[in-house]
Specification:
The protein is an alpha/beta fold. 32% of the residues lie in helices and 22% in strands. The N terminus is likely disordered.
């Protein structure tokens, strides 16, 4: 039974800022998994497929194709941040304070709220509903984002509770956080997926607005930590940006469980429009599967001792 000090610490854990929970995933670790997506990311990858996860607080998305111009949203907004212009519905995001009264007033659900806050207890209760599936599939819970390591106190408390219930824990992270934040989370993990976007620091900063030195240092520190954990490097394979031989070879390293190549896609494109954001890679084309498979075969030939995965297949 926890002592008084432990109980006080648990009750003072802040609420988490989250995006959504997806269940029965087969792409985010072993077995069937519930994936808890966090809000907020310190990076801005040009190809990000979840732009709604970048901001650390809930935000508004507007689906103008559903708008019937009834004016209920503009009439409800206490700050006048929403307008019905001649062309379309618009929102002054600098004025909006995130009350989301407009979303509640919209009869066609043209205004969407991205994000919610939740306690550790609330998330544990929700994902524990699927523990029978975790048990029979060797699955568990994965924290993703956004960047879960950017909310270290909440992430560590959530993972600790899950492991105490015998649930396998995984995280998908860029590791672009201070080591102290990552170190608070690592002891509560069974596996780590680290996105390595580019090995060249200048190119990494160009495409993500962040240097990669901190990321690579944190990977080395995990290797040397007192809590060894399986590390899988994931490379989002972007045509013409990081798919060249030299970059892929530089990604190879010892002490890896595997390297996984994630082929470029544009599944988040519609969400950029809902958030009034520009997508930076409009001219980048989706490649045929053989392109990704060839890159996987090349990478495997460079260091056969490191398993290479792409599209769920081992190369």
């Amino acid at each position: 039974m926890p002592d008084a000090a432990s109980h006080e610490k648990m009750t003072t854990v802040p609420r988490g800022e989250l995006l959504r929970i997806e269940k029965s995933s087969i792409h985010d670790g072993e077995g069937l998994r519930s994936v808890v997506f966090f809000k907020g990311c310190p990076m801005r990858c040009a190809w990000c497929s979840t732009p709604e996860s970048q901001c650390f607080v809930p935000e508004i998305g507007i689906d103008r194709s559903k708008c019937v111009r009834c004016g209920a949203c503009a009439a409800t907004c206490p700050l006048g941040a929403i307008r019905l212009d001649d062309d379309a519905l618009s929102v002054d995001r600098a004025t909006c304070d995130g009350c989301f009264k407009c979303a509640a007033a919209c009869p066609k659900r043209a205004i969407k709220k991205y994000g919610f806050s939740a306690s550790v207890d609330e998330i544990v209760e929700e994902v524990s509903k699927d523990d029978v599936f975790f048990f029979h599939s060797d699955g568990g819970v994965t924290l993703s984002g956004g960047e879960p390591c950017a909310q270290p106190e909440y992430a560590a408390a959530l993972l600790s509770r899950l492991r105490a219930q015998g649930i396998h824990t995984t995280i998908e992270t860029s590791l672009f956080v201070p080591w102290e934040d990552a170190a608070a989370i690592i002891p509560h993990l069974d596996a780590v997926f680290v996105d390595v976007k580019h090995m060249n620091p200048e190119q990494h900063e160009k495409w993500t607005v962040a240097d990669n030195a901190l990321i690579l240092e944190n990977i080395q520190k995990i290797d040397a930590s007192a809590h060894p954990v399986d590390i899988t490097i994931r490379v989002p394979l972007i045509p013409g940006i990081n798919d060249d031989d030299a970059n892929l070879q530089d990604t190879l390293r010892d002490k890896l469980k595997a390297i996984e190549l994630l082929p470029y896609h544009r599944l988040g494109l519609a969400t950029y429009r809902l958030l009034d954001k520009e997508y930076a890679l409009n001219d980048t084309q989706i490649q045929p599967w053989e392109w990704c498979a060839e890159r996987a075969r090349f990478l495997s030939s460079c260091k056969p001792s490191v398993p290479v995965i792409a599209g769920g297949s081992l190369f």
